[in-house]
Design a protein that fits this description.
By secondary structure, the protein is mainly alpha-helical. Helices cover 69% and strands 5% of the residues. It has a 5-stranded mixed β-sheet, sandwiched between helices. Helix 7 runs parallel beside helix 9, helix 7 runs antiparallel to helix 14 and helix 9 packs antiparallel against helix 10.
Length: 442
Amino acid sequence: MRTVRRPDHRSEQHSGHRSARSPHSAGLRHVLTHLVTPLLMCIGMGLAYLGAFANPAPHQLPVAVVGSGRSAQLLAQSINDKAGGDLEVRTVGDRSAAVDRLKHQDIFGAYVMPAKGATTGAEKGSAGGAGGAGAGRAAAGPSEAAPELLVATAVSDTSASVVQKVFTPIAAHQGAPLKVTDVAPTAEDDPTGQGIFFLLVAISIGSYTSVAVIGGAGAVLPVRWRAALAIGTSFVVSLIGTAFAGPVFHLVDHGLRGLWAMAWLYSAGILLIGTGLHTFLKRWTTLGVMTLFVMLNFTSSGGIFRPEMQNGFFASLHSFWNGAGFVEGTRSHVYFDNYGLSGHVWTLVGWLVAGLLMVGVAAPAEQRRRTAEAEAAANATAVAAAAVAATVPEPTSKRGSRTVRSTRTAGGAGTEARQGAADVDEAAAADVEMEMEEAVGV
């Protein structure tokens, strides 16, 4: 008796479910892999912004007491002792010297003591009670002199506020209101002086998001063409930034040509560095340029807090990072008669040179990679041709049917090869599109 074997529907059903799950598993792995980038951005932005801005406090913030007598020296020493290293108090001979040091950013506040012989309000009251109304009227003229605090809000509005909080109680202890004089005010439409920082943000975003487009969508172009596109894009971005600073929001009321030149140097440096990095980092380029030109850049630029108000890490970056070069260069050009401008411009030029070097390194590296890929494709084609030839044991002249069969076999292999290439191109296009979406989304 012959046994008839029944078909195993359960195994067929299990294999069907497994084949149905496999595409979803691959898609899930693809999504999880790409989620790494935004999660790393979240961690990096939190560490950078909270580390730089969460707890601002003065660190050796230089201020001055105006006066050459013993009273000025005693007051400076007393403030130094109470500050515990937060302030660095020195004495300055006269008011004009203090104004000069403020405009050179050597100090961030100067306390001008009342002229010798002037009486405070409290002293006037006691004199009036002891000597009668006549004595009080005689003291009325000198008592009008009050302590004065000199600040420069164009350097940093937050630093000026900190200095004012330091010296207001001192003036109150002396029994007189504190007169605050701003020797370097900001533009009328930028009262806090932080508009330059937000201009930096706009130019930066226009620059580093363009890197993803040039590097991704322009990957088929030679490196020199992409570098030319980067330079042209930086020209457009700098013009947009200058329009924002001048006719649109009136952040500055003069010096637009110099501002545009610094904006172009800044933007071109970012775009060239990013274009060069794309050859090596590929889809991780967005994370790389965000680390360089957002996380470490905005936090060390001095646009919100001066380095004297930050910890040592971000304060040290301020001395050579490109965002600080743009912010401080713009302040110097617009508000301080170009004092110290050359150093900030050289900082921007240095980053531009770094971008040109990065592109110069990327060009031969990409050429070698494309040569290797072409050789690999040629080898794969040769192997495929050999495999097809191995399926035809007899000469094509003897068997016409075999010719047809071998032609069909070769055609099938060619179709599969073309389909594989199409799949690779589609995957590459998807990666490019996702990279640009990540950059523009952020």
